[in-house]
Amino acid sequence: MEKQSTTRQGTEQGAEQSTEKDAQSSSIAVLGIASGFVVGLCATALLLVSILDRAEVPKTPVGLDAMHHLDISFQRSLARRPTPYSTVFLGDSLAAVSPVHVTTADWVSNTLARTIGQDPGLGKSIAPMGIVYTGLSVYSHFFMSDRILELEPNTVVLEFNLFYFSKWWLARERKQFVGWLPTRTWSDALRLPLYEIGLSTDRILYYRALLSARQFDSWRWVEQQQARAANGYWSLAEYLEDGSSSPAIQPSRNAHRREFLKKRAVHTPAGPRATAFYADQLLGKALRGVELDHPALQVLSTFLSMMQREGIQTITFVPPHNIDRLESLGLANDEGLKKTLAAIERTVAESGGTFVDLHDLLSDKYFRDNMDHLSGAGSPNASQLIADRLAPFVLEDARRVLAPES
Length: 406
What we know:
Layout: H1 2-54, H2 63-79, E1 87-91, E2 96-97, E3 102-103, H3 104-117, E4 129-132, H4 138-143, H5 145-150, E5 155-159, H6 167-170, H7 186-189, H8 201-212, H9 216-242, H10 255-264, E6 265-268, E7 271-274, H11 276-288, H12 295-309, E8 313-318, H13 323-328, H14 334-350, E9 354-357, H15 382-402
Parallel strand pairs: 1-4, 1-5, 5-8, 8-9
Antiparallel strand pairs: 2-3, 6-7
Helix pairs in contact: 3-15, 12-14
């Protein structure tokens, strides 16, 4: 009996060892397949990059280029932060004048300098630090909130473009900016409708992890190669469609894109102006009226409340839009627009901020294109007219902060 029991135990131990070896072999096999797949994928990617280099497919701007540029702006602003009072000016390309790239923040600085020169009681520089870049939105500003707080401003001047209500505009949002949000602010972020810009929780975790691991340069390189691959694909497709004798590898100019561009602008003596299709795409929602619970206003409220908790005064302004053009297209809707502006004003007021409405400040001649970008022509020019309206609010807060030292 003892011999049979010993034999049975030996058989069972042998079976267990065999099972363990099988499991180990399976794990090694799976690991080998996964490793082979990763190595193969990397080799294919490097081969594709080599082909793109040989074909001289150029680099094109990617979302992380904006992040890189803004990171430099934040670092420079931090290095030159004026004391004891400072202002941060946040805006998109509607706050910049091309081709000299002077921003509304610069004109506010000039206006303040003139006023301070006549007010010996202040006697200190209060020039705003401009954080301005094309294609930003209220989501971008919220994602940059921690970087803004690093500058320790007394006042934040925030441009709230009426385009921010457009689904088309928000679809262009650079979602990577969410990587700047520290984990302590995630409770605020996850309560917001980030799905409106196609942002999910896993992407928030992924982008934050990449920045925490200091892999920004590698991440940016991969995005650039992906963009080059897309350009190479469309260039090749266009070459095959056209039957051209020599393929010029350049960013895509396919027929569908050309047709879309035709829908966006018409040429007038004053320059490119929006078509009815494009104006509705950008401003239709704002013109028809928005409710207080609109996603963009929820994000605005969270951002302003965050600044307010830190003791930072906020000045939110709606920039000028080409109302003359909207009227000529028959799209102007006074009641709907009043409802939208009232919703913005109430959101700002509930967060303890100041609201400045400049949406109808400028006539058609002050705009240079179909997206309401400002022209640098005229004296005073568009930016100076805007600055003259904003500067008194900044100056009022500066006097309040600096009065004890005056």
